[in-house]
């Protein structure tokens, strides 16, 4: 443990470690909410459309309940996102001061998308009982687009940090002649953006489906649980093989654009051909690898479709310009965990697809439902692993090959940063605890409403005075014509 900390502190001021730890904690916490902020509106509107198109009251009930979760999640995202916004300026003034004019547009786009999304969520929630059904749906349709716009801004900023473009440097090393288009659409932007978007959609799909998989395992085999499982799981299952191919594409982009990061992810020490692939394993400072499974020549084949492909090693650059052995091992494990989980999810999606094509029904094995229930948590792990691969693999650079993390860090005393770190941990524990408590309370209320419906009382009777529940009957005694 001390050895790892020593590596992290090497060639850096004392405040570097607490600044890194604070940023890592807040990012790792916030990123768990991102799949739902970006993708849950789309999944909710898909269920909403199904309800209106087929006159399906169960689908409308699910969409309405999911919209309530969406609003609560967005409120929590406001807290964690605001903290992150302040941290960029407080912890890394060197980067924001020098490079903000080059890549800051991405943060501006994300901020505008954030405020627009807040307005649209409010309209969508308000409209459940007050607007014509189809008018309400069309007003909600821009929600996923604003979420994707916000993702566009953030990914553009991160892609620029990985492959900075759109500027020249003056004699003092400051950026001039900024080209905004080149700064936004960097070589890594396309691969990162589509990998991110598809990843968060399938993650949200698996998480939502996992909730209903647990209900199905507990014997709740009603249409409510089957539909709540089938729609989001189908979306996730369709996108899983697509994401696997996108993951392969972004790995190859890293091989070409950031060869040292690729070397860290694959723990390649020396440049050469016929490079083996290691599944897991640990890289030591002398270049030796212990543990793991060695597959001869596979790394060269995966990188360039030929064993003769030359793979750049970590020693191709000075030790001060590359991740340490500890950091490379962290990146390698994160990458391998992500690939392993992705492969298992492809098998799960194929299992589901095979049974659906044959019988138009879910797989009957309880093991399928158990795996489906775990898939959401596994996807959240891959989200964290993807972030670790992207950020730790870029070390020691905060702006790749242009500014080191140690050059960007604040001059605030380390003790003050550690105190701030402790305060943020306490606040986040309270915030996420409150989030889970609210979700559990809503879940219990919804279950009581459903049980009341089974006993002869409709869910409308129990939920009519709350923001959750099916669309009310029209004054004429039937549902609005838009529901049919």
Automatic annotation (TrEMBL):
Presence of keyword Transferase: no
PANTHER family: CYTOCHROME BD MENAQUINOL OXIDASE SUBUNIT I-RELATED, CYTOCHROME D UBIQUINOL OXIDASE
Protein origin, superkingdom: Bacteria
Alphabetic keyword roster: Cell membrane, Electron transport, Heme, Iron, Membrane, Metal-binding, Transmembrane, Transmembrane helix, Transport
Subcellular compartments: Cell membrane
Protein name, UniProt field: Cytochrome ubiquinol oxidase subunit I
Topology relative to the membrane: Multi-pass membrane protein
Protein's organism: Streptomyces albiflavescens
Gene Ontology cellular-component annotations: cytochrome complex; plasma membrane
TM segment ranges: 22-47, 68-90, 102-126, 138-161, 193-215, 227-246, 330-355, 367-389, 417-440
Protein's UniProt keywords contain Cell cycle: no
GO molecular function ontology, one term from the record: electron transfer activity
GO terms for biological process, alphabetical: aerobic electron transport chain
Family designation: Belongs to the cytochrome ubiquinol oxidase subunit 1 family.
Region described as Disordered: spans on this chain: 459-484
């Amino acid at each position: 443990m001390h050895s790892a900390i020593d590596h992290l502190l090497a060639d850096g001021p004392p405040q570097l470690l607490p600044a890194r730890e604070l940023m890592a904690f807040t990012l790792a916490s916030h990123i768990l909410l991102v799949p739902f902020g970006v993708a849950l509106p789309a999944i909710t509107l898909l269920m909403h459309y199904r309800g209106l198109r087929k006159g399906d009251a169960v689908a409308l009930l699910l969409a309405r309940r999911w919209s309530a979760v969406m609003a609560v999640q967005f409120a929590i995202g406001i807290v964690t996102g605001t903290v992150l916004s302040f941290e960029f300026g407080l912890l890394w003034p060197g980067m924001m001061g020098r490079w903000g004019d080059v890549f800051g547009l991405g943060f501006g786009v994300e901020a505008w998308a954030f405020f627009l999304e807040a307005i649209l969520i409010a309209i969508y929630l308000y409209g459940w009982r007050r607007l014509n059904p189809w008018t309400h749906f069309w007003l909600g349709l821009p929600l996923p687009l604003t979420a994707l716009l916000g993702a566009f801004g953030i990914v553009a900023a991160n892609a620029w940090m990985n492959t900075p473009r759109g500027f020249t440097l003056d004699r003092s090393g400051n950026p001039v002649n900024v080209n905004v288009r080149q700064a936004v659409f960097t070589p890594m932007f396309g691969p990162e953006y589509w990998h991110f978007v598809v990843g968060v959609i399938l993650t949200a799909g698996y998480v939502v489906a996992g909730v209903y998989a647990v209900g199905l395992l507990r014997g709740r085999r009603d249409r409510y649980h089957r539909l709540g499982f089938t729609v989001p799981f189908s979306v996730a299952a369709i996108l899983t093989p697509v994401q696997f191919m996108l993951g392969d594409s972004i790995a190859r982009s890293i091989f070409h654009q950031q060869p040292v990061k690729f070397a860290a992810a694959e723990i390649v020490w020396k440049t050469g051909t016929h490079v083996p692939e290691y599944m897991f394993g640990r890289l030591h400072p002398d270049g030796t690898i212990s543990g793991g499974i060695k597959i001869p020549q596979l790394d060269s084949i995966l990188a360039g479709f030929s064993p003769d492909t030359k793979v750049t090693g970590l020693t191709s650059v000075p030790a001060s310009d590359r991740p340490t052995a500890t950091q490379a091992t962290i990146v390698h494990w994160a990458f391998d965990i992500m690939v392993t989980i992705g492969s298992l999810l492809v098998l799960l999606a194929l299992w589901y697809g095979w049974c659906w094509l044959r019988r138009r029904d879910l797989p009957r094995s309880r093991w399928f439902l158990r795996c489906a229930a775990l898939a959401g948590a596994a996807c959240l792990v891959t989200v964290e692993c993807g972030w670790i691969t992207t950020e730790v693999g870029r070390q020691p650079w905060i702006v790749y090959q242009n500014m080191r993390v140690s050059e960007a860090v604040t001059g605030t005393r380390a003790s003050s940063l550690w105190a701030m770190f402790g305060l943020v941990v306490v606040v986040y524990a309270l915030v996420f605890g409150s989030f889970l408590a609210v979700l559990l309370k809503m879940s219990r209320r919804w279950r009581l409403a459903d049980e009341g419906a089974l006993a002869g009382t409709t869910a409308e009777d129990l939920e009519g005075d709350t923001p959750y529940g099916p669309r009310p009957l029209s004054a004429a005694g039937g549902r609005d014509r838009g529901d049919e």
